[in-house]
Amino acid sequence: MHSEAAGSNRWWQWRHDTLVLRLKLQPRASRDKLGEPLGDRLKVYVTAPPVEGAANERLLKLIARHCGVARSRVTLEAGATSREKSVAVDAPEHLPPPLDVCRPATR
Predict the structure, then answer these.
(1) b or e along 3-23 (b: 16 or more beta carbons within 10 Å of the residue's beta carbon)?
(2) Domain ranges of the chain
(3) How far apart are alpha carbons 26 and 9 in whole angstroms?
(4) CA-based angle 79:96:78, to the nearest 5?
(5) Average pLDDT for residues 34-62, to the nearest whole number?
(6) What is the pTM of this model?
(7) How far apart, in Å, are the Cα atoms of 20 and each of 30, 42, 74?
(8) How far apart are CA 51 and CA 93, in angstroms?
(9) Which of 42, 79, 81, 91 is surrounded by the most beta carbons within 10 Å?
C-alpha cells in the first residue's frame, strides 16, 4: 500500500493502491498524448472535442492504456466540465514517462 501526504503541490498522489492524477486537458488536439507537467497539473492532449463527454472518455481511455489497466479501473473524480481534472487509476500496472515519476518508493 502507498500513501502520500494530502496538500502536496505535485500533479500526482497515491491513495493506498490508487494513483490520483491532476490533469490539464487540451481537447481537439492533433493527436492523443501525455504532455509535460505544468505546475501542479500534467498536460494531456486528446483529439476528441469537449462535447457530450467525448473528450473526457478519450482521456480516460488514454490514461487506462498508458497505465496498463482496463478502462473500468480509471475514473474521473473531478472536472467533468472543466479542463482541469482529477483522474483516479486503481492499481496501475505500468507507469511509462511522464508517469514514471509517480512510482512509489519501495520499502
Answers:
(1) eeeeeeeebbbbeeebbbbbb
(2) 2-93
(3) 21
(4) 10
(5) 96
(6) 0.88
(7) 26, 11, 10
(8) 30
(9) 42
